[in-house]
Design brief:
Blueprint lengths: L7 H5 L5 H4 L8 H13 L4 H5 L5 H5 L6 H12 L6 H10 L4 H5 L2 H12 L17
The chain binds iron/sulfur cluster (2 copies).
């Protein structure tokens, strides 16, 4: 199975930490961006973990093929820092889960469709039938 690998050395040697420099939700100068990213890499506390809105853009900004977005999410989960309070996060997760009950309620619908098919349409019942004019 394909898995994303994060290269810590790529960040340590990164000449331009675009992941955070280009972030639209936090402002850093070049040194700060590098320092904060290295804190995230080392699993230390960083304001990135609190202020990131999980927009995913840093994943595109990194030109060295690293995966800053996934690392940030992983570190946040390790520290229990979520974009929203945990109950709301749980609700979002639940909202996207397939619900067993909704999947089972197909039989009555199928019966309804079957009934509609067998009932005569207006055209079939002759309501719109007109005699052909005599030539
Ligand atoms: S994630 Fe990419 S852009 Fe950001 S510091 Fe690491 S190598 Fe540089
Ligand atoms: S995912 Fe977070 S750190 Fe990355 S660009 Fe978006 S707000 Fe910034």
């Amino acid at each position: 199975m394909y898995s994303l690998k994060f290269d810590e050395n790529a960040c340590a040697l990164c000449p331009s930490p675009d992941c955070l420099l280009k972030c639209q939700y936090m402002e850093f100068d070049k040194n700060e961006a590098h320092e904060e990213m290295m804190k995230v890499v080392k699993g230390e506390d960083s304001r990135v973990l609190r202020d990131c809105v999980t927009c995913y853009a840093c994943e595109e900004y990194c030109r060295r093929g690293n995966h800053p977005y996934y690392l940030i999410c992983e570190r946040r989960e390790e520290k229990g820092l979520y974009t929203a309070p945990r109950p709301i996060t749980n609700q979002w997760i639940n909202m996207t889960q397939m619900q067993g009950k909704q999947m089972v309620v197909r039989t009555p619908f199928a019966v309804e469709v079957e009934e509609e098919k067998t009932a005569p349409t207006e055209f079939e019942s002759g309501k719109h039938w007109r005699p052909m004019p005599r030539l």
